[in-house]
Design a protein that fits this description.
Layout: E1 4-5, H1 16-26, H2 38-57, E2 65-68, H3 71-86, E3 92-96, H4 101-112, E4 116-120, H5 130-136, E5 141-145, H6 159-168, E6 172-176, H7 188-191, E7 195-199, E8 210-214, H8 229-232, H9 240-255, H10 257-278, E9 282-284, E10 295-300, H11 305-314, E11 317-318, H12 334-338, H13 343-346, E12 349-353, H14 360-380, H15 391-401
Parallel strand pairs: 1-11, 3-4, 3-5, 5-6, 6-7
Antiparallel strand pairs: 2-8, 7-8, 9-10, 10-12
The protein binds pyridoxal-5'-phosphate.
Enzyme class: transferase
Organism: Acetobacterium paludosum
Cofactor: pyridoxal 5'-phosphate
Length: 402
């Protein structure tokens, strides 16, 4: 049976062109980039090419690009590295309640080490308030970390405006841009950021390779200690093949950004209109306009996200409930709770994320089948007292989007 993959926010298939670029570095150009003979020198030279491709994609200098083993590592490094470097100046960090767990759990770890963290709330569409941010900044604030675009509800935060406020106060600013790259323009100079995290597998590259952009001259402690790789900032023999893959994936992503954005946005809107128009008591989560071009996130009254996922899987559709990191646990998503959804409603969420290869026919198939699935699940599970539905949540959504 044909599969329709609508979970591009969890991971993407590796572009065949990217696979092509990797292969020689697993075979003939296998040398350790630190070795001085020909095999090593060739690998080192190639890595610098990939570094430049990433730098070009985000308008940085190639000397500001540091390869890591994942987006999660880049987030950990940015937060712990700045905290450790500046702990004599202050121990206060500001972030938001809707960050990826790589950021949230790094902050929680630092709290155990004596740091203080402010978790900014978000409004009902997932935006932080610039006023809240200004009010949270203190004399001992050393770091602000706010994600560029949310991986669950797709809301895009006002990073440029946040960067301006944070810069005026002389505080270090980090943004997790893992969901932004390849989906919206990312320009480190325009955004006023000091640190920015990226991951290859969200942009049609392989899993297990990330980047931390570190603005030139910014003091930061190392996270991984060992050899002198990455200009003595990140130890470990370079993952040459994956670095080359990330470089190529970033190049393809920026070359085709405009057309991909238009493609995803068209299908996303087709999906949103279809679902909200044909399914009663459905709600779109996240900002109606300031959202990732490929992201649609819904709640359906009276049913659990997991049941929808299983029914979709049976007919060949791959989607997600909350984020990949929380599926398997029965806790409602921290992001959906932060936008004010009652736990009972947050359980009914479905995230569908569109990619380069998604077609309008795919979306029609998904919408038509969802109508039936939701109806069937609702018929099967009569309303019970354990799942009271806050009708206002859905009335409001209907009011917004019809
Ligand atoms: C996927 C993701 C990460 C983690 O990246 P990995 O390379 O999978 O570790 C971090 N932040 C966001 C917003 C993500 O979507």
């Amino acid at each position: 049976m044909k599969r329709i993959y609508l979970d591009h926010a969890a991971t993407t298939p590796v572009d065949p062109e990217v696979v092509e670029v990797m292969i020689p570095y697993l075979t003939e150009t296998f040398g350790n980039p630190s070795s001085i003979y020909a095999e090593g020198r060739a690998a080192k030279k190639s890595i610098e090419k990939a570094r430049q491709q990433i730098a070009t994609a985000i308008n940085a200098d190639s000397r500001e690009i540091y390869f890591t083993a994942s987006g999660s590592e880049a987030d950990n490094w940015a937060i712990k590295g700045i905290a450790m470097k500046n702990k004599a100046k202050g121990k206060h960090i500001i972030t938001s309640q809707i960050e990826h767990h790589a950021v949230l759990h790094s902050c929680e770890y630092l709290e155990k080490q004596g740091f203080e963290v402010t978790y900014l709330p978000v409004d009902e569409v997932g935006l932080i308030s610039l006023e809240d941010l200004k009010n949270a900044i203190r004399d001992d604030t050393i770091l602000v970390s706010i994600m560029f675009a949310n991986n669950e509800i797709g809301t895009i935060e006002p990073i440029k405006e946040i960067g301006k406020i944070v810069k005026e106060k002389g505080i270090v600013f980090h943004t997790d841009a893992v969901q932004a790259l390849g989906n919206i323009p990312v320009d480190v100079k325009d955004l006023n950021v000091d640190l920015l995290s990226l991951s290859a597998h969200k942009i049609y590259g392989p899993k297990g390779i990330g980047v931390l952009y570190i603005k030139k001259g910014l003091p930061i402690d190392n996270l991984i200690h060992g050899g002198a790789q990455e200009r003595k900032k990140r130890a470990g023999t370079e993952n040459t093949a994956e670095i080359m893959a990330f470089g190529k994936a970033a190049e393809i992503a920026s070359e085709h950004l405009e057309e991909n954005m238009t493609h995803m946005k068209t299908l996303r809107d087709q999906l949103i209109e279809g679902v909200l128009g044909k399914i009663p008591l459905a709600r779109l989560n996240g900002h109606p306009e300031k959202r990732l071009p490929g992201n649609a996130n819904f709640c359906f009254a009276y049913i659990e996200g997991e049941s929808i996922l299983l029914s979709l899987d049976v007919i060949g559709i791959a989607g997600s409930s909350g984020s990949a990191c929380t599926s398997g646990s029965l806790d409602p998503s921290h992001v959906l709770l932060a936008i004010g959804l009652p736990a009972g409603v947050a359980h009914g969420s479905l995230r569908l994320t569109i990619g380069k290869s998604t077609t309008p026919e795919d979306i029609d198939y998904v919408v038509n089948n969802l109508v039936e699935i939701i109806q069937r699940l609702r018929d099967m599970s009569p309303i019970d007292a354990d799942h009271p539905i806050d009708a206002a949540v859905f009335d409001k959504a209907d009011h917004h989007h019809h």
